[in-house]
Design goal:
alpha/beta
């Protein structure tokens, strides 16, 4: 028996990295998964995003844990496509209990101060995409009628301005992740009458392909910014996806049944330095 038996979870950005980690962990606790990912690159984002093969692997791992998995290829920026994909998942595995709005992009190291395509893509994905995700999923939780948990994956950059370098990329990332915290607080109030808890998890840099790619690594080596990577705890350059997943698991479980409207840093002390 798992803590999440007889539940259905929607996870965006599920093809790899944090999203895959969350999907597998929730499946191990008994949840069926609707796994959403764009499965395509974006022109203004300077690293490769997850692929359909990556999403298929997430599905395989969920099924290996003994749970159902529905892959949905959709861009969170496209509300209509996201709603249609989520509904297809609901038709297959049932109404939703848990939402993890995890999809996000970054362009650390892009020095352009005026790039509207970069700024717009980051904000549209990281902030508007989270709003779209709630629109596409929360009505299902309300229909099910037994409450639920929504976790928005923000960032330590949603709690601090450290690392700002004047670039469109970093301005957009910090602004969008601060915006996610605002969405969380507003949604916690809006959805409380339906017994839906809404919280955010705010990790510092995580050892996933979003950070561990040639563009970001080379950019950080060429233009080091200690304010981005500085941690209070020694020897922790990056946290692991599983560290974020542990916070997510707690927030979607009955163990946090009275926790709503909070932002939980998983950052080795980055935001308090």
């Amino acid at each position: 028996m798992g803590e999440l038996d007889d539940t259905v979870a929607v996870i965006t950005g599920a093809a790899r990295g944090q999203g895959r980690s969350h999907a597998v962990a929730l499946a191990e606790q008994g949840a069926d998964i609707i796994a959403v990912d764009i499965c395509a690159d974006i022109d203004s984002i300077p690293y490769q995003l997850g692929t359909k093969a990556d999403l298929d692997e997430t599905v395989r791992l969920v099924q290996a844990a003994g749970r159902k998995a529905v892959p949905v290829v959709a861009d969170v920026r496209d509300r209509a496509a996201l709603e249609a994909g989520v509904q297809a998942g609901i038709d297959e595995v049932g109404e939703i209990d848990i939402v993890i709005a995890n999809a996000g992009v970054v362009a650390i190291g892009d020095p352009d101060e005026r790039s509207e395509p970069v700024f717009n893509t980051i904000v549209d994905t990281n902030l508007k995409g989270v709003w779209h995700t709630m629109i596409a999923t929360v009505p299902s939780i309300i229909r099910k009628g037994r409450g639920g948990s929504v976790v928005l994956i923000s960032s330590s950059q949603g709690l601090t301005g450290k690392g700002g370098d004047g670039s469109a990329a970093m301005f957009a990332y910090a602004a969008s992740k601060h915006g996610v915290v605002g969405l969380m607080r507003s949604a916690a109030n809006a959805y409380a009458p339906h017994r839906i808890r809404v919280n955010s998890v705010n990790p510092s840099g995580v050892a996933t392909p979003m950070i561990l790619n040639d563009f970001v690594v080379n950019s950080m080596l060429e233009r080091p910014n200690p304010a981005i990577s500085g941690m209070l705890l020694p020897g922790v350059p990056l946290v692991e996806a599983r560290d974020v997943t542990e916070a997510v698991l707690w927030l979607v479980s009955p163990r946090s049944r009275y926790v709503t409207g909070v932002a939980i840093p998983v950052d080795a002390g980055h935001t308090i330095m």
